[in-house]
Design goal:
- The protein is globular.
- The two termini are 25 Å apart.
- Helix 5 (135-155) links the parallel strand 5 and strand 6.
- By secondary structure, it is α/β, with parallel strands linked by helices.
- The chain has helices spanning 15-26, 45-55, 70-75, 77-97, 135-155, 181-194, 215-228, 245-256, 280-285, 293-306, 308-313, and strands at residues 7-10, 32-33, 59-62, 65-66, 102-106, 159-164, 166-168, 199-203, 209-210, 212-214, 235-237, 243-244, 261-265, 274-275, 319-320.
- The strands form five sheets. Strands 2-1-3-5-6-11 form a six-stranded parallel beta sheet, with helices on both faces.
- It contains eleven helices and 15 strands.
- It has a domain at 7-172 and 211-240 and 275-298 and 313-319: NAD(P)-binding Rossmann-like Domain (Rossmann fold).
- Helix 2 (45-55) runs parallel beside helix 4.
- The structure holds guanosine-5'-diphosphate-beta-L-fucopyranose (GFB).
- Guanosine-5'-diphosphate-beta-L-fucopyranose binds at residues 69-70, 73, 108, 110, 133-134, 137, 166, 179-181, 184-185, 202-204, 208, 210, 245, 268-271, 325.
- Guanosine-5'-diphosphate-beta-L-fucopyranose is lined by residues 69-70, 73, 108, 110, 133-134, 137, 166, 179-181, 184-185, 202-204, 208, 210, 245, 268-271, 325.
Length: 325
Amino acid sequence: MKTSDKIYIAGHTGLVGSAIIRLLEGKGFTNIVTSTSSNLDLREQNQVKQFFKKEKPQYVFLAAAKVGGIMANQTYPAEFIYDNLLIQSNIINEAYHNEVEKLLFLGSSCIYPKNALQPIREEYLLSDYLEPTNDAYAIAKIAGIKMCQAYAKQYGCRFISVMPTNLYGPCDNYNIQNAHVLPALIRKFHEAKIAEKDNVTVWGTGSPRREFLHVDDAANACFFLMENYEHTEIINIGLGKDNTIAEIALLIKEITRFEGKLVFDESKPDGTPRKLLNVDKINALGWHSQIDLENGIRNTYTDFEERYDYYVTQKERTVFGNNNV
Ligand code: GFB
């Protein structure tokens, strides 16, 4: 990509989209196109058609999706499947009709089977049953992958699909009911410290294992793959290490300097027992993550403290522009 190329970031206000914009601007890209959801509803076919016809982007990062944590996925499966199928189908189809040079579609590690062998290799896709708490979202993302592959096969489109692990960082969703675990716990511990509470509730048993990648690393990987990856097979993005939720909670407790106890609420779902991606494929191409978990969470907590009022007053952000895959 040249710095003058026209690049559309779908989902630019979300976790991933905003990180891609920070990265591109830092590299001197000057022709970035975005549109807010009040000006362009990506679920509306005709609006997306008009937008592509007018803007004619050369490259597309498809980071727009309806996303949320385990409870949001479990509570709103209809919205997760309907909105995501529409958003991605409209963008992928218009990218084809408007001769976009290359498109990168962001999937999610929840596309893999619930009981997949660990670390999860790309070829385990569709080899077994999905985790039921997020199967509607996962099916939508799998449809997006298959759509990119079908357009590549039938029309020769350069549409690639990348599968990031659980992400965190600036511009996340901090709405406790709908958020992913990391932002939810940052907010819970921070507010418990301020209110001098003696405990914080962590959902589930604390035993599930998750891999967390800082979103600036994920954005960096997306840029790298846009430049260096030409295959239709999916490719994982992760750092290759995981932790239990209890370990993550203890780390956040330490970083936020909360002095009380953790209480595990086992009435809340654990979700899939383990999600650790095999990242041999992207590592072999020459990309490696740069931000370790502790520094990444410290940086995220500093951003959260500095922009606390913004994060807690913002409208509920499950519709992405807010991608946290
Ligand atoms: O991040 P999370 O909501 O999503 O939850 P998943 C991860 C784990 O953290 C689960 C536990 O075992 C939760 O029970 N947990 C503990 C909490 N305390 C909390 C809390 O306060 N809030 C939340 N949210 N969890 C999502 C999928 O699965 O991962 C999405 O539902 C997407 O589709 C995303 O793929 C990356 O990792 O379980």
